[in-house]
Every structure is written in structure tokens, then in C-alpha cells.
């Protein structure tokens, strides 16, 4: 079981089970952002931590094979552009930038609060991908391959 | 309705650049030029249509105490014109300058974020929002200072980032205390509430803000980061930092907060005068000893900010006019001088004045425009710098601050001295330069020529007929203590 | 009043560290401490005596909520601090690559 990167078998096994639970918890926090504490940023950080957990346990090479960093980068930029698009849509339909333009629903139900859940999801993608890519980029540095913090 | 677009356009451009750019950077150039051009058109349009009016934009359809508002009055549209004008020329200069570095699209994305931050600081009417946009601009600035990937640049960027975070923390503390004492974050509401609050609070918060924004605008005791950061950055970024960043984040914020919110307390006006004159004299003296051209220009920036602060501190209508005019003039000629330094660095591979020589024959555009900029910054007629300094000095005499007038005169003489040194060694020296590493491209030349022409054209702004349309509304906004509250809150 | 004074002392601790420490990482930590002190202070500004959390719940909310706005401000400020810290750490790593040290007295290529 000798492997060059990553941690021991115990850590890897625990990570393999727990990472999905962490991801699920992050998604729960995001979807209930308008009802309970949390929201896009907190949930996004939890998702990023799940991915970072994998990176710590299995090593960077595994992450490079597992996900396409360029794709995560594009996801991050496009979520930011999408956020702005939602804002402009609010300007076109409703009163001002980021104004609510869909039905507010019933208080305390999951599908309520207008555009806020949508914006929460967009922000969570931005935050999780951004944070993960930042730490991934920081871990590139010691290999001296270059690359720049964005 | 143009106000939100001032912020949306560069932000969208920044993220689109990161999205579509790969190895080739052509799309990044096209997108950023388009974005900045449209911003400049919007800013000019708002500048010429605003006049004495004030336009409010309330975000997300809520009403003012509950929402973030954007405010467009004469002062903010004036600053927007300056920022976007310098940004456009800086981009023109960047196109060929930035090819020497790897992955230029990152540069353009960060550049757009820098403009977003500055436009946001200028347009916003909410004090916490000002803090957030300031952090966006600073974040981009740290990365851009370190863009060259050399040891000195990382060192300068680290120093800048440490100083910047300390000042941001102080500003956040001030915002928190203001919120605790007035229960609102909209600047106009804060100004209205502060009249009923114990004046001790005003003084404490103003002191904290003076330290915070003083660090941002590099007034003399807080200046240590500026020469390193501004001389290490790539030349177009140096011109953005020196030309507009310290004004948008430092001087503009000081004007808004001290004049429009706190109502210009007399103690702080005196402090402005003292700090301004210290900056003028000491920074000029330090600049005299520099042999690195960009460091010399950076110290000169501190001393010119001193002139602006002195004008603001005197506080009469004429002095404020001089300060506002000097903000515009300094942005133009200091950016031009940094372009000259960048062109010389690109051609010769050095910024050491002792290693330069006679560039008159080989680089006529650079030498000629640097001559114009030098005459302008040193305050010789008919260039714009002469008029703004003259106004500040006359205002000082009129307000019976003879000592400060003398200091300003000495400061401009010292300015002339160190710029003569720069011209003498840098552009008209004895050694003939034979070898050039790179030729100066058309974009760089045109950026320099545009600003050189503006050095002369902007002195027309002082002619009475034009002044009433352009500069006087700005002065009115600054001078009128309760006008901002009435204009924003509508009462 | 005591809590505000304690927060201010924490701020001064951070400032002292940022100004006197020689290690790049310790400077970054000191800046974080400064930021946390201010965040804590603003959260304390929002507190009301016997106040409860500022969330609407189905069972009927406590009418005496604490002020939720500073909490939103602090969340924003934490995000900003996260970005700045990442930037500072990246710069520190790059400086370490160039100079092979974290000691700022040895990182002096720029002259004053």
C-alpha cells in the first residue's frame, strides 16, 4: 500500500465516506439560506472544504486527475457573470439593480423569498470554486511551476 | 439611470475576460478597451449633464435608509471622468507594454477590477459600500504591483498589502463607530444624524478616518509604502496608482467624509494644512536625492498630494477650486510622466537616471511629452499645473496664511529643481544612446500625446466662462455643508 | 464598556504585532487579529441587553432581537479578510522562494 502522495489508508477511507456527507451538509446550508443561518457564502465554504479534504487526503496529483481545474475556473467566472446578469434582469423587470422579479411565495416554505435562493446558489458556486482554486494555486507554488494567485 | 452601469460594465468585463481568454489575449484587449471607452463616454455624459443637480439610484427597489444608494453629483462625475480618462490612456499604453509578461489576460481582468473598485468608491452613497469597493480596488492593486514577478515587486506588494490592511481595519473601525452612534450607513443620513450626536464622537471617528484614509492617500507621516509600490509596479499601473488610485481612495474619500459628512470641522482643516505642507516640503526634499526615475516621480506624487491637501485645508472657495483643479492636473501630468518613465525603461532597460543619456534624437515623442509634463508639474505657464498652484497660493495669501503660501512657493521651486535634474540627466544627458531593446509602439506614443495635449487644453478650464460649467459645481458640492444631505434625502 | 475596551486592547495587540514582528507569517497573523478585534467590536455594538438571535421562526420570534445589520457587515468584512489573507500568503510564499527566508530584516532589496 505504499503511495507517494496523500495520507494513510485510514484517512483515505474516512475521507471517502465523509466527503459526501460534508457536501450534502453544504448543499443543505445553501438551499436553506433564506430560512436559517448560513447561505451562499457559508455553504460555499463548506463545499470547498469538502474538496480540500479530498486534496489533503489523496494528494494534489489525484485532484488534478479527478477534476479539471480550468473548468472550475470557468465555473467561477461564469457564476459571477450570472450574478450580474440576475442583477441586470432585476433592473429590466423590477425596480432596480438586483430587485426581486419572481413571486415571493409563502413565508417559511423552501421555495420562497423570490430570487434570494437563486442568488445563494450562484454565490455558493462562486465561493466554493474560488476558495478551492485559491488553495490549489497556493499549493502549486512550492513545486515551482509558476502560476499566479488571481 | 447610468449610475449602476458605471460599476456593472467593468465588473462584467473582468469576469468575461477570465471566462473567454486563453492563450491569446486579443479578446481581453478588445473587451477591456470597449468597457473603458463606454465608461468614459458615460462619465463625460454625466459630467456635462449633471451641473448642480444630484441624481440618486436606489439599489434593488428599496427606499433610501434601507438600501444601498448610488449618488451622482458634480464631484463624483468629475472624479469619474478623471478615473476613466486615465484608465483609457493607461490601457492604450498597456497593450504593447504588457506583452513582456506572461498571461496578459490576468492583467486586463485585474485592471478591470481596479476600475470597478475606484468607480464604486466614487459613485456610492453608502459608507460601508465605500469600504467594500475600496477593498476591491486595493486587492487588484496589490496583485498588479506584484505582476512583474520579480523579488522587488513582491516585496513592495507585501509592504503595500500590510499597510493597506492596517488602514482598512482602521476605516472599518470608524464605520462601526459611526453605525453605533447614528444607526445608519447611508452617508447623507449619517451627516444628518451627526448634528444631534455628541461632537466628541465626530472628533474620534474623524481622527480614525484621517489615519485610515491618510494611509491610503500617502500623506507624509503615512507615506512609507508609496515610493516602493508605485515604483515597482508596471508603468501603466504606476500611472493608475499615482494618477487616480490615491485620489479616488484617499483624497476623494477625505473630501466626501470630512466635508460632506462631518461638515469640515476647523481642527481638521488646520491638520490638513499642517500635514499638507509637511508633505510638500519633505517629499520634495526626498525626491531631490533620488536617482531612480520612478521613485523620484513617486515622491513627487506625495508632494503634489500635499498641495491638494493644503488647498482643501485652507477651505475658502478659491482654495477648494485650486485643490479640485490640481486633482485633475496631477492625474494628467503624473500619468504622463510615468508613461515616459515606462517607455524609457522599455527602450533602455533601466530607470537609473545616471545610465540614461541624450534621448532627444532617438525618442522624440517621449522626450517632448516629458518636457511638457515637466513644465506642467513644475508650474510654468501656460500649462495647467501653473494655474492650480497659483490659485492655491493666492488663496493662502487671501486667507492670511502667509506661512503656508511661502511653503507652497518653496515646494514648487523644489519641484522645479528635481524635475530639472530628471530632465538634465534622463533625457538631455551627454551620453549618446545607441542600443535600444525595443521600439515604442504607436499605442504608447498616442497615449503620451493625448495626455500632453490635455496638459495644455485643461488650463482652459480656468477661463471664467468654462469654469462656471465645469469646476464651479464641484466646488459648490464641497463647500455647501448641508447641500449633500438635502440633495440625497430630499429635505 | 469593559468589552469595548478589551476589544480595543485586542486591536492594539494586533497592531503591535504587525509593527514589531519580523516574521512574515507572524505579520499576517497580527493583521488577522486586528481584523477580528474590529469584527468583534462591531458585533458587540449590535448587541441589546437580553437580546436574542435575529431570525424569524415559525414558533413566534422573540421581539427583542439583536441588530442583524452589523452581522451582515461582518460577514462581508470576513470575506474581504479571507481574500486579503490569501493574497498576503501567496506573496509571502513567493518572497520565500526568492529570498529563502521569512525574516523581513533580510528582505531589503528596496532602498528607502
Mean pLDDT of chain A: 82
Chain pair sharing the greatest interface: B-C, 35 and 33 residues
Low-confidence stretches of chain A: 143-150
* Uncertain spans of chain C: none
Helix content of chain A: 55-70%
Which structural class should the secondary elements of chain A be placed in?
mainly alpha
C-alpha Rg of chain C (nearest Å): 19 Å
Derived structural class of chain C: mainly alpha
Query: How many helices of chain A in DSSP terms?
Result: 5
CATH class of chain C: Mainly Alpha
Proportion of residues in helical segments of chain C: 55-70%
Radius of gyration of chain A: 18 Å
Largest sheet of chain A: none
Order of helices and strands of chain A: HHHHH
> What is the β-strand count of chain C?
0
Q: What is the average of the pLDDT values of chain C? A: 86
Q: Approximately how much beta-strand content do the residues of chain C carry?
A: under 5%
Tell me the series of helices and strands of chain C, N- to C-terminal: HHH
Any overview of this molecule?
The complex is a heterotrimer of chains A (150), B (491) and C (112). Chain A is mostly helical and 150 residues long. Chain A has one domain (9-143). Chain A is 66% helix and 0% strand. Chain A has 5 helices and no strands. In chain A, helix 2 (40-58) runs parallel beside helix 5 (116-140) and helix 4 runs antiparallel to helix 5. Chain B starts with a helix and ends with a helix. The longest helix of chain B is centred in the middle third of the chain and has 32 residues, at 151-182. Chain B has a two-stranded antiparallel ribbon. In chain C, helix 1 packs antiparallel against helix 2 (24-45) and helix 2 (24-45) runs antiparallel to helix 3. Chain C has helices at residues 2-20, 24-45, 69-99. The chains are: A mainly alpha (150), B mainly alpha (491), C mainly alpha (112). Chains in contact: A-B, A-C, B-C. Chains B and C meet through helix 5, helix 6 and helix 9 of B and helix 1, helix 2 and helix 3 of C.
Amino acid at each position: 500500500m505504499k503511495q507517494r502522495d496523500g495520507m494513510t489508508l485510514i484517512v483515505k477511507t474516512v475521507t471517502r465516506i465523509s466527503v459526501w456527507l460534508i457536501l450534502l451538509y453544504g448543499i443543505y446550508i445553501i438551499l436553506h439560506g433564506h430560512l436559517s443561518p448560513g447561505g451562499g457564502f457559508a455553504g460555499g465554504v463548506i463545499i470547498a472544504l469538502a474538496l480540500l479534504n479530498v486534496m489533503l487526503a489523496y494528494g494534489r496529483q489525484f485532484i488534478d486527475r479527478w477534476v479539471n481545474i480550468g473548468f472550475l475556473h470557468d465555473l467561477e467566472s461564469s457564476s459571477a457573470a450570472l450574478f450580474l446578469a440576475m442583477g441586470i434582469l432585476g433592473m429590466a423587470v423590477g425596480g432596480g439593480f438586483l430587485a426581486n422579479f419572481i413571486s415571493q411565495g409563502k413565508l417559511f416554505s423552501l421555495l420562497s423569498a423570490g430570487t434570494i435562493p437563486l442568488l445563494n446558489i450562484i454565490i455558493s458556486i462562486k465561493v466554493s470554486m474560488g476558495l478551492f482554486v485559491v488553495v490549489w494555486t497556493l499549493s502549486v507554488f512550492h513545486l515551482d511551476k509558476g502560476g499566479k494567485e488571481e | 439611470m447610468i449610475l449602476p452601469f458605471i460599476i456593472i460594465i467593468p465588473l462584467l468585463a473582468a469576469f468575461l475576460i477570465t471566462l473567454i481568454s486563453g492563450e491569446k489575449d486579443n479578446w481581453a484587449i478588445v473587451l477591456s478597451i470597449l468597457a473603458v471607452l463606454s465608461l468614459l463616454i458615460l462619465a463625460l455624459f454625466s459630467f456635462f449633464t449633471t451641473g448642480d443637480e444630484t441624481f440618486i439610484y436606489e439599489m434593488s427597489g428599496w427606499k433610501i435608509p434601507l438600501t444601498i444608494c448610488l449618488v451622482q453629483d458634480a464631484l463624483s462625475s468629475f472624479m469619474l471622468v478623471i478615473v476613466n480618462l486615465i484608465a483609457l490612456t493607461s490601457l492604450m499604453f498597456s497593450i504593447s507594454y504588457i506583452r513582456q509578461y506572461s498571461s496578459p489576460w490576468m492583467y486586463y481582468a485585474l485592471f478591470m477590477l481596479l476600475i470597478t473598485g475606484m468607480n464604486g468608491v466614487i459613485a456610492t452613497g453608502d459608507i460601508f459600500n465605500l469600504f467594500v469597493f475600496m477593498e476591491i480596488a486595493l486587492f487588484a492593486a496589490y496583485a498588479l504591483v506584484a505582476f512583474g514577478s520579480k523579488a522587488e515587486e513582491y516585496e513592495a506588494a507585501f509592504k503595500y498589502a500590510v499597510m493597506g490592511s492596517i488602514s482598512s481595519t482602521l476605516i472599518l473601525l470608524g464605520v462601526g463607530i459611526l453605525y453605533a452612534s447614528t444607526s445608519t450607513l447611508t452617508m447623507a443620513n449619517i451627516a444628518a444624524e451627526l448634528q444631534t450626536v455628541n461632537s466628541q464622537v465626530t472628533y474620534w471617528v474623524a481622527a480614525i478616518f484621517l489615519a485610515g484614509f491618510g494611509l491610503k492617500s500617502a500623506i507624509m507621516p503615512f507615506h512609507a509604502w508609496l515610493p516602493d509600490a508605485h515604483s515597482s509596479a508596471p508603468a501603466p499601473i504606476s500611472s493608475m496608482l499615482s494618477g487616480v488610485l490615491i485620489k479616488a481612495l484617499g483624497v476623494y474619500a477625505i473630501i466626501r467624509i470630512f466635508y460632506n459628512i462631518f461638515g469640515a470641522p476647523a481642527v481638521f482643516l488646520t491638520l490638513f494644512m499642517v500635514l499638507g505642507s509637511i508633505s510638500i516640503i519633505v517629499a520634495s526634499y526626498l525626491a531631490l536625492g533620488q536617482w531612480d526615475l520612478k521613485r523620484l516621480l513617486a515622491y513627487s506624487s506625495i508632494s503634489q498630494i500635499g498641495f491638494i491637501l493644503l488647498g482643501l485645508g485652507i477651505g475658502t472657495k478659491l482654495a477648494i477650486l485650486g485643490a479640485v483643479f490640481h486633482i485633475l492636473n496631477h492625474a494628467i501630468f503624473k500619468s504622463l510622466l510615468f508613461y515616459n518613465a515606462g517607455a524609457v525603461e522599455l527602450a533602455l532597460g533601466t530607470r537609473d537616471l545616471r545610465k540614461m543619456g541624450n534621448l532627444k534624437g532617438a525618442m522624440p515623442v517621449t522626450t517632448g511629452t516629458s518636457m511638457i509634463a515637466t513644465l506642467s508639474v513644475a508650474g510654468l505657464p501656460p500649462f495647467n499645473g501653473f494655474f492650480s498652484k497659483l490659485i492655491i497660493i493666492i488663496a493662502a495669501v487671501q486667507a492670511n496664511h502667509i506661512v503656508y503660501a511661502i511653503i507652497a512657493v518653496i515646494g514648487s521651486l523644489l519641484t522645479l529643481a528635481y524635475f530639472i535634474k530628471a530632465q538634465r540627466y534622463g533625457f538631455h544627458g551627454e551620453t549618446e544612446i545607441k542600443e535600444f531593446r525595443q521600439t515604442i509602439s504607436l499605442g504608447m506614443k498616442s497615449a503620451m500625446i493625448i495626455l500632453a495635449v490635455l496638459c495644455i487644453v485643461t488650463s482652459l478650464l480656468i477661463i471664467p466662462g468654462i469654469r462656471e460649467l465645469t469646476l464651479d459645481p464641484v466646488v459648490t458640492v464641497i463647500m455647501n455643508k448641508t447641500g449633500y444631505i438635502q440633495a440625497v434625502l430630499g429635505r | 464598556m469593559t468589552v469595548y475596551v478589551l476589544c480595543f486592547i485586542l486591536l492594539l495587540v494586533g497592531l503591535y504585532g504587525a509593527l514589531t514582528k519580523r516574521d512574515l507569517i507572524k505579520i499576517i497573523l497580527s493583521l488577522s487579529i486586528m481584523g477580528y478585534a474590529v469584527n468583534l467590536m462591531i458585533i458587540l455594538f449590535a448587541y441589546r441587553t437580553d437580546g436574542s438571535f435575529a431570525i424569524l421562526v415559525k414558533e413566534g420570534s422573540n421581539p427583542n432581537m439583536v441588530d442583524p445589520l452589523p452581522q451582515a457587515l461582518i460577514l462581508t468584512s470576513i470575506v474581504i479578510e479571507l481574500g486579503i489573507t490569501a493574497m498576503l500568503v501567496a506573496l509571502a510564499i513567493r518572497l520565500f522562494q526568492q529570498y529563502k527566508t521569512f525574516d523581513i530584516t533580510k528582505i531589503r532589496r528596496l532602498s528607502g
